[in-house]
Amino acid sequence: MFIKNPQKFILFFLLFACLPALAANPFLEEFEKKREAIVKAWEPYIKLRGILEARYTEAKAHNDPYANSILELGHKKDHRFFNEFKAPLIHHYAWGIPNDAAIAAIKQYSPLIEVGAGNGYWAHLLKNAGADIVAYDNGTDAKYQAISPVKTWFSVRAGDQTSVQHHQDRTLFLCWPPNISAPSLSSEALRLFSGKYVIYVGEDRMLPGGRPSRMADARFFELLERDFALIQTVAIPNWPGYHDSVKIYWRKATPNSSSGSSSSSSSSSSSSSSSARSSSSSSSSS
Fold it and tell me: What is the pTM of this model?
């Protein structure tokens, strides 16, 4: 077959050859391959945990000296599942599992600042999708790195929640922030942030059955509910027993709005993508 314009053909060939590499999400691919095995391993554990929790409550009520031993057995089973299935993936990639819909939605709120970025997997995908993102982490998860080889996916800067003070013109991005750090990464980052948008990847404040979230802390949810309104929710794949999603929030009232200084600086920094944000919010609001 004769090609009329070989240069154009070569250009299109190279373009399409590069597309899979730019869109690659090896974490999601590996998770999907192992999903069936993960679910099978989780089912007997969750049944056992329910039995153990019931027995622990009963033993506690009767001051049984073996009550803590019952609870300890449940923790051992949990650690076994974690070490065998979750640890190799979460420490090579991330705690939350991103998908195309999540990355596309978050990208609309670029530029971004992520704190608690780990090894930068989400930042890596966002950058490849065209987002402008800076990422910080203080390295507190280093104790887990011996579980599996840790790959650095993005140039993550050394820093903690205070880093947001230097990037108030960006959208604050938090992915699976811990609820046990002191001071709290999530609530402190949110308290120090005066920007317009917050993106949180994690569980709701209260889970089905009335259990509290295993991510972020109570103060974070208080500040979030007080100062921000939910404008979009994006479903992502979940680990068995977890209920995390991507939630995008808009500030109800900008700090120092009476003077207008903070409001105008925040608005002007994001003017280039304001139309995309408006259409995304109105079509996916929840």
Answer: 0.72
